Amino acid sequence: MDFSTIDTSHPPLKDLTTSNITQNVHAINAKCNNPRTRYLFQHLVTYLHDFARDTNLTTQEWETAIAFLTDVGKTCTPVRQEFVLLSEVLGLSLLIDSLNHPKPQGARATDGTVLGPFHTHEAKDVPHWEMISRDGEGEPMLVGFISSRRSVERSDAVFGVKESLVVDLGTVSYVDGLAEKYGVEPSTRLLTYDFVLVSEEEVKALRESKSRE
Fold first, then answer.
1. What's the pLDDT at 7?
2. Bridge partner list, 190
3. Could you give the CA distance from residue 153 to residue 113 in angstroms, rounded to a whole number?
4. In this model, does residue 206 exceed pLDDT 90?
5. Which of 3, 48, 47, 51 is closest to 27 using CA atoms?
6. CA-CA distances (angstroms) from residue 171 to 57, 140, 141, 182?
7. SS3 assignment, position 193
8. Which residues belong to any copy of the Catechol dioxygenase N-terminal domain (predicted)?
9. Quick one: the chain helix, strand, coil %, rounded to 5?
10. Rounded to whole angstroms, how far apart are CA atoms 72 and 105?
């Protein structure tokens, strides 16, 4: 849709129909002084109205959605932002991160990701096999590697969508002197993974280029 052709005149309320209500909302939002905000709302309203029309959304479904969003808001606290979690469930967080950090075409750059909901910069380093729980309460959970020979590799939901989690593990004996350096057995498993990063300058240039397209 070409938003530059939007008619900003207010249609009479008695003439409102399912086909012209979107234009009426655009006319109201056209009074917004911020061009970017006005642009975003024009697109949001258009897609939202089209979604309702395309799916023939019912009043009950609309009320259920409102109740769900209300519950999400009630769950939020100063240290827990439930709407961010909802954004991640919908795939929006990663999409926005990918759009704002584009990769050069053909580059073997590592795919970006977002920080987990419980990530904190204040987390302290702890020795291997030590508890990371601050209060020591609850049932301990051990995290480890799963052999590729296990059927869970293809049946588990996480591995089903995260192909990058499946890697080949060698042993420290593959690298001369590594076992002695860290005081471990030569048969200790070794995970190697190369991260290929894109510079901020490249990302900025790509972002500006895409914004002009």
1. 54
2. 170
3. 21
4. no
5. 3
6. 56, 27, 25, 13
7. coil
8. 34-107
9. 50, 5, 50
10. 38
